[in-house]
Amino acid sequence: ACAVAALVGLSFSGAIGLTFLMLGCALEYYGVYWPLFVLIFYFICPIPHFIAKRVSDDSDAASSACRELAYFFTTGIVVSAFGLPIILARVEAIKWGACGLVLAGNAVIFLTILGFFLVFGRGDDFSWEQW
Predict the structure, then answer these.
(1) pLDDT of residue 122
(2) Contact, 35 vs 24, CB < 8 A?
(3) Residue of 34, 43, 119 lying closest to 77 (CA atoms)
(4) Which residue, 12, 18, 71, 81, is CA-closest to 46?
(5) Among candidates 24, 7, 6, 11, which has minimal Cα distance to 106?
(6) CA atoms of 77 and 127, how far apart (whole Å)
(7) Are 74 and 50 in contact (CB under 8 A)?
(8) Positive or negative CA dihedral for 43, 122, 74, 95?
């Protein structure tokens, strides 16, 4: 029951984040779809974690170089996702209001991804593999 509630909450927050992103693109005042390129960052964000988890299966170690490198790459991906709309607004490819909506969507989506790993990434009695 707790896992189902967490899954429903995460899907709701993901929908909120994607709504912010789509509002930044599709509102008639903004009308430019360049900010949709941040979707690429959403998809590649968990990849370093999955690779590091696959390579270093020793869960008793407090820290490993592979895990730290995965954190570094993930941080670079997240910072790039926040930087892209700012750069697009700076070169006037999108308006600053659209940039604000995309940044709000980024914050919600990346917090949702973090929440997913906190809830389903522990590997105890339930995990994301069961879904």
Answers:
(1) 66
(2) yes
(3) 43
(4) 71
(5) 24
(6) 25
(7) no
(8) positive
Token pair 């490993």 in the structure block, residue: 64
Residues in the chain: 131
The rounded distance, in Å, linking the Cα atoms of 78 and 59 is 25
Q: Show the DSSP H helices in the chain as ranges.
A: 2-26, 38-44, 47-55, 65-90, 96-120
pLDDT at 61: 59
Type of residue numbered 67: R
Mean pLDDT by 10 residues, the chain (131 residues): 85 94 89 92 93 74 80 95 96 94 96 90 56 51
